[in-house]
Every structure is written in structure tokens, then in C-alpha cells.
Design brief:
Blueprint: E1 17-21, H1 24-27, H2 40-47, H3 64-78, E2 82-86, H4 89-92, H5 103-118, E3 122-128, H6 134-138, H7 147-162, E4 168-173, H8 177-181, H9 196-218, H10 220-223, E5 226-232, E6 235-238, H11 243-265, H12 273-285, H13 298-304, E7 310-314, E8 318-323, H14 334-338, E9 340-343, H15 361-374, E10 378-384, H16 395-413, E11 417-424, E12 443-445, E13 454-456, H17 458-469
Parallel strand pairs: 1-2, 1-11, 2-3, 3-4, 4-5, 5-7, 6-8, 7-10, 10-11
Antiparallel strand pairs: 8-9, 12-13
Bound molecules: 4-nitrophenyl beta-D-glucopyranoside (PNW).
């Protein structure tokens, strides 16, 4: 389908918020500066440099710890309404606990927030974007139930310190990091497929809900902010409309969308029935006494239900789903529990990342799906982006953003509740184990330069124009590629 197939002019209303995102480990650098503690990503990439595609880790990254004023200048050049960034837990609490509060680290975020507010840019703060203090990882990290309390204590420090100025909070970025960290090559890279990943997931959800309740109880009246969680929600289509493929896609969606949304947004809470029954059945067959998927108690179900003022949607791509036939997965594993084979169409344009292809109708379908299942939840698109080669002429990113933004307009027209849109990312950064081999920035970063010089790409100019005009113009081209504050 062609996103441009009708000629009606749709526009974003004036209070729709446009922004860009980054995360602490990926941009800040200064990994051991001014009293910052070690994170599990510091430890992981220092001990396993071989896993990084181009060897570049987050020690210096885009050096935003020192360049934040330039970052805010770029935000002003773009004319964004908000900036989504994350706080590094070990930068503010080097031991992971609240016994030592690192004043220098806390001041860094004070400075960034104040600089944003000076120019009327709304800060949107993520409490956790993958960089757990290494001290806590050693004590079990997200697989330990104790992390729920540790996270609440950490959240309290941030709500106390920044609550007067920050109105949009995101507790956790993508609970699905559990599957990559306990069954893949993301930190802590502990090989515990089908077990550790589910334990992690339970505690991540409870940590989120506990932080949400803390804000609700102690800060909401005073500060009137809202608290959400960002989920990685790609859409799974049936490979074609054969019944078995449609059924496989429904199971896939239960495991990758319902898994996170059901506990918070459904009427009865808890994990989806299909997920619970499939993992239980497989676990029994495999000789386990009980399900590898931990249960949620009635109290936990209650704590989780309704524990978000908004859903943060991180949406990059879509997949095509068939029942598992030829592929063999590790046993036990999340993949084996789902029991489907996924692929992407050869017709979808390919980015620099193997997993990321452009399929703009996917975000429209995702919204129709969650609206029907969860009754039109309030959402904020907290990440969407495209990876390219280095270079300023990022035509493929321009195409991607335009087509997805048109799809977002279609979704809004059909009732989706979307408060804003956030491009991943403001600038090139350390793309986890891909290092700097995949570039997601509207701004290019010259990682060879002392200052980590930032230069606007074509997409930065196009996004600026979209923000100004509140419409998506298919054919607009800038006169020149200079960007300035207007
Ligand atoms: C996001 N997928 O993760 C993360 O939040 C960012 O830190 C990261 O830089 C960005 O995407 C680009 O990778 C995702 O498989 C990882 O669809 C994988 C997927 C989606 C999001």
C-alpha cells in the first residue's frame, strides 16, 4: 500500500509534541568522570570488546556530558517541543544504593534540565535505559526480586530532585531488554534463555509499577506530572492470510505486545492467557515442576493494573509470522515458547541494521490493534528511527520519517490517542554492540574529532520543516543544508 494514496492534507495539531531522543550510555561518555560508578554496560564492553562491531564503546561516546549545551543548541535548531533523554543510575548513585548521592552527577542533569527549560523545551526523562549499576548486577540485577526496592529508592531520588521541573517521566525503556540481556548479546549477556529472561521481566514490570505508585502517592498532587513506560512494539503480520499464519501472528503479538500491555492496560491484568498456558505446557514437557514464566500474585496484578498515565511506543519495524516448521530454537527459550518463524518482506527498504526495514503501515496496524484490545490507551511515540551509513545525505531516513509520519496521521484520524512523536535519535551515538557502525542521528557526529563535532543531516532540515508546518510535504527540499535557530 502506498501511504500517499489519497490527496487529503492531514496535519498535526499545534499541541502535538515533536521531539528527539537519546540515552545516557549511548551519548554521555565520561564513564568514570566526577564520581560516576560503573554500569553493567561499562563492565560488559570493557571485558568483551570483541562483541562490538567497530570496537567503539560508550567511554566517550558523543561526549554529551561535556557537550550538553551544544545538544540543546541543536534542539533549538530543530525547533522541537521536547527532548527525551535518560539518567544514568550509576552516575547519580555510584554504589547503586542511596548511601552515596553523587552531587556532581546530579548537577549534570540539573544543568541539562535548566538549559532545556530556558528555551521552552520540555524534558522527558527516562529513569532506566539499560545501564544498571554493575554493583547491583553483581547482586543479581533484574533477576533478583530485590531490584524492585532498589529501583524505587533510585526513583525517589530523581522525583525529589527534578520533580519540580520534569513533567514527563518514563520509568523503564523497553522491558524486552530482558530477552536480549539474558538470552542474547546485550548486557549482562547471561545465557539464561527461557528462565532468567522471564524472571527479569517480572521484576522490571514490578519496578515500573512501584515507581509509578510512588509518584502517584507522593508527587502527583504537587507536581502534576505524568509517568509512563516505553515498550518496544513492532507489529507482527501473518505471513499471508492463510489461517495458520494469522493464528501464529496472534500468538506472536500476545508474546511481544500483550506480554507487556496486558498486565498494565487490560481489564483483568496479568500476562495473556495464551502466554501463560504455552509456557506452562512447554515447561512441564521439559521436566520443570512449574512454569518458567513466574506468576504474578493477586497483589502484584493489582499493583500493575493501571500503572501508567501513558504508553510510550517505541516502534521501528514490522515482521511477518508463520508457525514454526523448519527453524530449530534453543530449548528452553522465549523463541521456542512462542513457536513461530519470523521474516521481513524483500520489498521493504532495508536500513543499515539487519533487523530494521521500512514498513510504515505497521505503525498504523499496531495502533488499530492496541486500540481494539486496550480501548484507545493514551500514548506517546517515544522512539522511531532509521539507521544509515555515515554522511549528510540521508535520503533513506527522510523517506522513512515522512512515510511513517503520514501513517501516524492516518492512525490519529482513526482514533489513536497520540500526544507526541520522538525521533530516535537526535544524533549519532553508540548503538550498543553495533558501536558506531549504525548511525541513527538527525545530526552526524564526527567520532574522530576532539569535540565530537555535530552536523545536521538532510533529515534534520526536513524534520525541522515538518515541526514548523505541522504537515508532511512529500516534495519539500531545503535551499541549502545549513540549519540555524529560527
Ligand atoms: C531501541 N527491534 O531498541 C533502543 O531503545 C535504543 O537504545 C536503540 O539505540 C534503538 O532502538 C536502535 O536500535 C530497539 O528489534 C532494539 O525492533 C531493537 C528493536 C527495536 C528497538
Amino acid at each position: 500500500t502506498n501511504a500517499w494514496s489519497d490527496n487529503r492534507l492531514r496535519r498535526f495539531n499545534k499541541d502535538f509534541m515533536f521531539g528527539v531522543a537519546t540515552s545516557a550510555y549511548q551519548v554521555e561518555g565520561a564513564w568514570n568522570v566526577d564520581g560516576k560508578g560503573e554500569s553493567m554496560w561499562d563492565r560488559y564492553l570493557h571485558t568483551r570488546p570483541d562483541v562490538i562491531a567497530d570496537g567503539r564503546n560508550g567511554d566517550v561516546a558523543s561526549d554529551s556530558y561535556h557537550q550538553y549545551k551544544r545538544d540543546v543548541e541543536m534542539l533549538r535548531e530543530l525547533g522541537v517541543d521536547h527532548y527525551r533523554f535518560s539518567i544514568s543510575w550509576p552516575r547519580v548513585l555510584p554504589t547503586g544504593f542511596t548511601n552515596i548521592k553523587n552531587e556532581k552527577g546530579l548537577e549534570y542533569y540539573d544543568n541539562l534540565i535548566n538549559e532545556l527549560l530556558k528555551y521552552n523545551i520540555e524534558p522527558m526523562v527516562t529513569l532506566y535505559h539499560f545501564d544498571l549499576p554493575q554493583t547491583l548486577q553483581q547482586l543479581g540485577g533484574w533477576a533478583s526480586p530485590l531490584v524492585v526496592q532498589w529501583f524505587e529508592d533510585y526513583a525517589k531520588v530523581l522525583f525529589e530532585r527534578y520533580g519540580d521541573r520534569v513533567k514527563y517521566w518514563i520509568t523503564i525503556n523497553q522491558p524486552s531488554f530482558c530477552f536480549e540481556g539474558y538470552g542474547g548479546i546485550m548486557a549482562p549477556a547471561l545465557n539464561s534463555k527461557g528462565i532468567g529472561d522471564y524472571m527479569c521481566l517480572k521484576h522490571v514490570l514490578l519496578a515500573h509499577a512501584t515507581a509509578y505508585r510512588l509518584y502517584e502517592r507522593e508527587y502527583k498532587k504537587k507536581y502534576k506530572g505524568s509517568v509512563g513506560i516505553s515498550l518496544s512494539l513492532n507489529y507482527g503480520f501473518g505471513f499471508d492470510n492463510k489461517t495458520e499464519n494469522e493464528e501464529a501472528a496472534e500468538i506472536y503479538r500476545d508474546f511481544t505486545i500483550g506480554m507487556y500491555m496486558n498486565p498494565i492496560w487490560s481489564k483483568y491484568g496479568d500476562f495473556p492467557k495464551t502466554v501463560k498456558s504455552r509456557v506452562l505446557k512447554k515447561s512441564k514437557e521439559q521436566g520443570y515442576e512449574m512454569s518458567r514464566l513466574p506468576t504474578l500474585s493477586p497483589e502484584e496484578i493489582k499493583l500493575l493494573k493501571g500503572s501508567a498515565d501513558f504508553l510510550g511506543v517505541n516502534h521501528y519495524t514490522s515482521v511477518l509470522v508463520k508457525p514454526q516448521k523448519t527453524e530449530k530454537f534453543e530449548v528452553p527459550s522465549f523463541e521456542d515458547d512462542i513457536g513461530v518463524e519470523i521474516s521481513q518482506s524483500v520489498h521493504w527498504p532495508q536500513s543499515k541494521s539487519s533487523w530494521l526495514k521500512s514498513s510504515p503501515f505497521g505503525i498504523y496496524r499496531l495502533y488499530m490493534y492496541i486500540n481494539q484490545k486496550y480501548d484507545y490507551p493514551q500514548t506517546f511515540i517515544t522512539e522511531q528511527g532509521w539507521s544509515s551509513e555515515p554522511g549528510l545525505n540521508d535520503r533513506t531516513r527522510v523517506d522513512y520519517l515522512r512515510e511513517y509520519l503520514v501513517a501516524v496521521l492516518f492512525a490519529i484520524e482513526d482514533g489513536a490517542q497520540i500526544m507526541g512523536y520522538t525521533v530516535w535519535s537526535l544524533m549519532d551515538n553508540v548503538e550498543w554492540v553495533a558501536g558506531t557502525s549504525e548511525r541513527f542521528g538527525l545530526y552526524e557526529v564526527d567520532f574522530e574529532s576532539e569535540e565530537k563535532t555535530r552536523t545536521a543531516r538532510l533529515s534534520a532540515l526536513v524534520y525541522k520543516r515538518i515541526i514548523q508546518k505541522r504537515i508532511v510535504e512529500k516534495d519539500w527540499e531545503p535551499d541549502n543544508w545549513k540549519i540555524s535557530i529560527t
